[in-house]
Design goal:
Elements lengths: L40 H16 L4 E3 L9 E6 L2 E12 L4 E7 L7 E7 L1 E7 L5 E7 H14 L20
Antiparallel strand pairs: 1-2, 2-3, 3-6, 4-5, 6-7
């Protein structure tokens, strides 16, 4: 899908306009995102805007739906190393799993223990369309799994008791 197809009719994205962080209960956070098929300048501009939105909100990762865009794309930055992955696919590497407490820019103030693979193989594309394949370990592994969850409409609150998500009640 192209970026323009994922916005409401009549709301073409202005490259100069800043993206806004989406938080619950915004329904875009629960949508399964569409694959990217156009590796063009608007996509690269979107990636840069997402990086800036992530940094403005003091995050280490941001998936497209957190910016209101339903494309399979995420960005991350840890210790000055930046990553952008389009159409990511993950596979656990057999290094086992570990539980860690995660927060999320789209769920302010919520922290949830989440079990994740210690290492994952990441395949996808760069914003320029080049094939990408690497193994993410440690915090990078946690980040990519968290962001891919967003692309599938899943939030950290889905891993927790009902009381962890604002607006949800225990049943």
């Amino acid at each position: 899908m192209t970026i323009g197809n994922l916005l409401p009719k009549g709301n073409e994205r202005d490259p100069a306009a800043s993206l806004a962080l989406r938080t619950l209960p915004d329904p875009v956070l629960r949508l399964v995102c569409e694959p990217v098929d156009a590796f063009d300048r608007p996509l690269r501009e979107l990636v840069e805007e997402m990086v800036q939105l992530m940094l403005r909100n003091q995050g280490i990762g941001l998936a497209a739906p957190q910016a209101g865009v339903t494309l399979r794309l995420f960005v991350g930055e840890i210790d000055g190393r930046r990553l952008s992955v389009v159409n990511p696919r993950l596979q656990a590497c057999g290094a086992g799993a570990e539980e860690g407490v995660e927060g999320c820019l789209s769920l302010p103030g919520v922290e949830v223990p989440v079990g994740r693979a210690k290492a994952v193989e990441v395949r996808g594309r760069t914003p320029e369309g080049k094939a990408l394949s690497f193994v993410a370990e440690g915090l990078w592994a946690r980040l990519v799994q968290h962001e891919v969850d967003h692309l599938n409409g899943r939030l950290i609150s889905d891993y927790a008791p009902a009381a962890a998500e604002p607006g949800r009640t225990k049943t």
